[in-house]
Specification:
heterotrimer; A: alpha+beta; 7-stranded mixed β-sheet; 32% helix; globular; disordered N terminus; C: mainly alpha; 80% helix
């Protein structure tokens, strides 16, 4: 028996030695492991954060965001608009090159906008560009956009990776195997479900992005891999197979204490996690039912249990870091944690512990949201609400929520823990102005307020209207904010990585990274 | 996986119980299964706490005095959850096997009885169903109807049909060729009587052995689906689901992973041993 | 023998045909409007576009016509495009199928290499402690949920001991998942080999050989093994299907980039084209392997060969 154990150890030793030898010793690539893969390389074909983050590496946008989330020049070195806010002219920097060597100029901008507004296959986020009717090339470095009506949210949009500039030399296989942009990282290959491999763009100039590095990334290569299991990611971090990854939440305190990995928590994520309801049918067509749920929810305790101090309760429908956010203002209007009040409201509606209010609770996978859902489920059960958790991925959740909203017949209630991240209060328009992203609510009163938020150019005036909208949503428990941030905002970083940072709205930056020995 | 059982009409071979109790496998298996049934029936009395209540104890308490099996990530008592889980496990096994066996036996008996074109259609259909394998059938069901324990159990039940159909078919073929059967036909017994009064009781012992072994397969399959998130949903204390949830805490609370896994393994082992014991004790020909 | 093979081939075709029918029907079994579900997540889609998609998928046609459309596309190698990202399903599957096959085949090797000798040893030493011990081990092996075994292996070998990498798709990465699948199935082979060998050994021709005074080892090798291994070959065909099924769970535990993981993701994403493609591929692989194994069996079994 002894010799078998010994020989087993020898075999294992040989294996690990050979694997160590097999790994390259010089010029490492930066390796970032995430729980899932992108949906598409085409910025018009997906909406997941996983995809967004990659687009910000491959492409450039006309503008960029500073540390506070405000738009600043990037590829567009300046811009002006007419008084009415219906014409915008952008001047582009000269000498910007696409990854295939062709120049990036007004032609590519027009190409991108035409693709977004293409009749047959428009961009999934077409609405966020605004009512653009024409994109006119004045000269190779100047482009003029004409809008049907004013849309102040267009400017921040041009700093977000949904508006990435796609080079017009992209052809077959664009979005699935190739992606030519002008960003700091050039795509080498995409093995679906497994990894994306990039090499640095040696010709890159950083005009306005948050990296300190004014030019091309310091390291030669970047690999983004898919590792769904949190424990597997942690193990890979410890063995230096991976440099950056989201650790298991429950192990973060231990990691911080041992100091073996650095924990980076993104700020100004603009992420908002909230309850919303199928309002067009019972029980949630009655505001008291919605308020009952809101009063029964103790978000602070729940997130403390699941996320520790990594996440905080959020009072406003748009999160910290976004224009218009004001915790004190929102605290006045939002339903507070008050289980007794919840029970009273339920009693008014005819429910009791023996006859609970039944609802489906839709939650999307990942980020420990399943566990969080269980905590909320238990909280709701205490006041007499029986919630059945249904887990699905974010795309299915979006589809299902819309289905539930459009279904006026169903007998069982439906509520969901929706998550949205946006850099501008215009998200409220997208969500709640008729018809709404999920057909979730219809109110001419709210519509009028939201309409104004789109056209007021004076920030103070706009803020007032935004807050009016928020107060409306909060009082009627249409949008019940829970916490922020909520997904993919925590990074565990290997000690030999220097210079890793995360820009607002959770865009990690790799240009500054230097890998130590 | 053919099981040959030679038996005379209407009675188990003499010494069945004696042989069962002599076979070590059978005894151990029986004890485990009885223990499980006991836990399931008396879960309310045996469980010290409410399995769904969060914060019963501190989070991640290792097994110790107050909480013999420790607590989970929400502070729920593991012992109570395992006990209630045994009820769900048994139900899963019973319902899934119930479906498989009922439909399977009908198909098998009809095929053996009628012969001819009906036999061919039925058996070929079960062959086709068989190559889909359990997991695929289960996946398809869940893909269409959505994840839920109910759907998972039905899927596992349906997926098991070919196996029971085939076994029943072989056993029924043997029975129908026996003299007593032919005698009944010439005596003028109608098809209903033949099927349910003569054929079924004689095929039943074999099927019970198969079913006992099948319960373990069903439990494993359903637990596997729950593990993937396609079966039991929170806050059910189903063992496969508990196992899935324990993945995040391997480092911090390894007992959350070991205990549900052991529970499944022991249960399945119990049914397998019992089935084995039943099989050897039903088979009068001892091989030496 | 040819008739035997012919029947098997015919059954194979039948199975695949039934699969295509079921796969076409799958989308209709979904409660609610499938196209709405598939495209509702993209806010920019207008009702006209949904109608267009419905027409292009043929979902507004009666079901038999839909089936013909599906078969037509199938023969052209078009399995549709994924809802997420619009990639050709065939491409997605072809990229990941080799990984699953590699896993299943390696696991099969492990199962046979461990299980058969075990069963043989138990049969050889039938009735002794060795036999009882080995058989108990194999029952325990069958009882253990393979996803639990996988987690335990992951925990011990990768996390605790750090001997093997935790995830990825290289050669070393294959060891743990293949072991998980292989060990769970080895037990089945062990039991089968044992009972098959015992069967053969008790038969007349073997007893005669012993009576003639031939050395036990020679008898075993020449007579018993060949006959005893035949059921094992058949079992390999059956077990391969189960291995493919088991791979689905194992791939998820070890982040192995095969079609099993793809299928589970697709279910959560309600990406029906992928699910349909997966079901078809799975059946195809299982049927092909079954036919190959049956052919092997026909060659090996003299009774069938002469028929």
């Amino acid at each position: 028996m002894n010799f078998t154990r010994r020989s087993l150890k020898q075999v294992a030793a040989v294996f690990s030695l050979s694997s160590a030898l097999a790994a390259p010793v010089i010029a490492e690539d930066i390796v970032w492991a995430r729980y899932g893969d992108i949906d598409s390389l085409d910025p018009h074909r997906a909406t997941s954060t996983l995809s967004l983050q990659v687009w910000s590496l491959v492409y450039d946008t006309l503008l960029a965001m500073d540390a506070d989330g405000n738009p600043v020049p990037h590829i567009a070195k300046s811009w002006s608009s007419n008084d009415a806010g219906t014409e915008y002219t952008f001047s582009l920097e000269a000498g910007v090159l696409c990854h295939d060597g062709t120049p990036l100029d007004a032609n590519d901008v027009k190409y991108t906008i035409d693709a977004a507004f293409n009749e047959a296959t428009p961009s999934l986020t077409k609405g966020s560009w605004g009512p653009i009717t024409a994109a006119e090339i004045i000269d190779p470095l100047t482009i003029k956009l004409t809008l049907d009506s004013p849309f102040v949210a267009m400017v921040p949009f041009l700093a977000d990776s949904f508006s990435s500039i796609i080079c017009d030399t992209n052809g077959d296989g664009f979005g699935t195997t190739t992606a030519i942009g002008s960003g700091p990282w050039k795509l080498k290959s995409w093995t679906k479900g497994d990894r994306l491999v990039f090499e640095k763009n040696a010709d890159y100039t950083n005009f306005g992005k948050l990296a300190d590095n004014p030019g091309a990334p310091y390291e030669d290569g970047l690999i983004i891999t898919v590792v769904p299991e949190p424990q597997a990611r942690l193990a890979a971090l410890k063995t230096n197979e991976v440099h950056i990854a989201e650790p298991p939440f429950d192990d973060v305190p231990m990691i911080k204490k041992s100091g073996e990995l650095e924990i980076v928590v993104a700020e100004n994520t603009g992420q908002n996690v909230f309850w919303e309801f199928a309002i067009h049918r019972p029980p949630f067509n009655d505001v008291r039912a919605r308020l009952a749920v809101a009063h029964a929810t103790d978000a602070a305790t729940a997130i403390n249990l699941i996320y520790g101090d990594l996440s905080i309760p959020e009072n406003c429908p748009i999160s910290r870091g976004v224009f218009g956010n004001d915790q004190d203002f929102c605290a006045k209007y939002r339903p507070a944690y008050d289980p007794e009040k919840a029970k009273a409201l339920l009693a008014e509606l005819g429910y009791s512990m023996d006859q609970p209010l039944e609802t489906a609770m839709l939650v999307w996978t990942g980020g420990n949201r399943q566990k969080l859902g269980e905590v909320f489920q238990a909280q709701l059960a205490e006041v007499g609400i029986k919630a059945t958790i249904e887990i699905m991925d974010i795309g299915s959740l979006n589809a299902r929520v819309r289905q539930e909203n459009e279904n006026k017949e169903g007998t069982k209630g439906s509520m969901d823990m929706m998550t949205w991240s946006w850099y501008d209060p215009d998200i409220l328009f997208a969500l709640w102005h008729t018809p709404g992203a999920y057909r979730g609510y219809t109110s001419p009163e709210l519509d009028a307020i939201l309409d104004e938020t789109r056209i007021l150019t004076d920030p103070d005036a706009r803020k007032v209207k935004v807050q009016e909208a928020m107060a409306y949503l909060l009082e009627k428990a249409i949008h019940v904010p829970l916490y922020t941030p909520g997904w993919e905002w925590v990074f565990a970083v290997s000690p030999n990585v220097e210079g890793f940072k995360v820009a607002p709205f959770v865009y990690p930056i790799f240009s500054d990274i230097k890998l130590g020995g | 996986m053919g099981i040959t059982v030679g038996m005379s009409a209407h009675s188990a071979p003499a010494g069945f119980w004696r042989r069962l109790f002599l076979s070590p496998n059978g005894v151990v298996g029986l004890m485990i299964v009885l223990g499980l049934i006991f836990c399931a029936i008396f879960a309310e009395i045996l469980a010290p706490h409410n399995p769904a209540k969060m914060g019963t104890g501190g989070r991640f308490l290792p097994p110790s005095g107050d909480f013999p099996l420790g607590t989970d990530e929400f502070g729920r008592d593991m012992l109570s959850r395992i006990l209630y889980g045994s009820r769900i496990t048994l139900l899963i096994g019973a319902v899934a096997v119930g479906i498989s066996m009922t439909v399977g036996m009908l198909v098998g008996m009809l095929a053996a009885f009628h012969r001819g074109w009906l036999e061919m259609i039925l058996m070929r259909s079960t062959d086709v169903l068989f190559s889909f394998t359990e997991t695929l059938i289960a996946l398809s069901f869940v893909a269409v109807l959505g994840p839920s324990l109910q759907n998972a159990v039905i899927a596992v039940g349906v997926a098991g049909i070919p196996f029971y159909a085939r076994t029943c078919y072989s056993a029924a073929l043997v029975e129908t060729s026996k003299p007593y059967f032919e005698a009944s036909i010439s005596a003028g017994a109608g098809p209903g009587r033949l099927l349910f009064f003569h054929l079924m009781p004689n095929v039943l012992p074999t099927m019970i052995v198969v079913a006992t072994l099948g319960v373990s397969t069903a439990i494993l399959a359903a637990a596997g689906l729950s593990f993937l998130g396609l079966g039991a949903q929170p806050p059910t204390s189903e063992w496969g689901y508990m196992l899935a949830g324990s993945r995040d805490y391997i480092n911090r609370a390894p007992w959350l992973m070991t205990i549900p896994g052991l529970a499944i393994a022991i249960t399945v082992l119990g049914f397998n041993l019992l089935g084995d014991g039943l099989r050897t004790s039903l088979d009068p020909v001892e091989r030496k | 023998m040819w008739r035997f093979l012919g029947t098997r081939l015919a059954m194979g075709f039948l199975t695949i045909w039934v699969t295509t029918v079921l796969v076409t029907l799958l989308i209709h079994a979904v409660p609610g409007d499938p196209v709405q579900i598939m495209y509702a997540q993209s806010q920019g889609t207008t009702p006209e576009q949904i109608e267009q998609v419905r027409r292009s998928l043929g979902l507004d046609q009666p079901i038999p016509i839909q089936y013909l459309m599906y078969m037509e596309r199938l023969f052209q190698g078009d399995l549709g495009v994924t809802i997420r990202g619009g990639q050709p399903v065939l491409e997605v599957i072809v990229q990941r199928l080799p990984n699953t096959l590699m896993l299943a085949v390696t696991a099969m090797f492990i199962a046979v290499l461990i299980g058969v000798p075990m069963g043989f040893l138990a049969a050889y030493r039938e009735g002794t402690l060795v036999d009882i011990g080995l058989m108990f081990l194999s029952i325990a092996g069958i009882s253990m949920p393979h996803f639990w075994l996988g987690l335990m292996l992951l925990f011990f070998f990768a996390l605790e001991l750090g001997w093997l990498p935790v995830s990825g798709n290289g050669g070393l990465n294959l060891i743990l998942p293949a072991l998980t699948l292989g060990l769970s199935n080895a037990a089945i082979f062990a039991r089968l080999t044992r009972s098959s060998m015992i069967d053969v050994m008790s038969q007349d021709f073997v007893q005669t050989a012993f009576a003639k005074g031939l050395p036990k080892a020679l008898v075993l090798r020449r007579h018993v093994m060949r006959a005893g291994l035949l059921p094992v070959v058949t079992m390999m065909g059956l077990q391969f299907a189960f291995m493919m099924g088991g791979a689905i769970v194992v791939e998820n535990i070890f982040s192995w980039n095969g079609v099993g993981r793809m299928a589970v993701e697709a279910i959560f994403q309600r990406d029906y084209p992928i699910i349909q493609g997966f079901i078809l591929t799975f059946s195809l692989v299982v049927v092909i392997v079954a036919i190959v194994i049956d052919a092997l069996y026909a060659v090996l079994d003299p009774r069938i060969r002469r028929a």
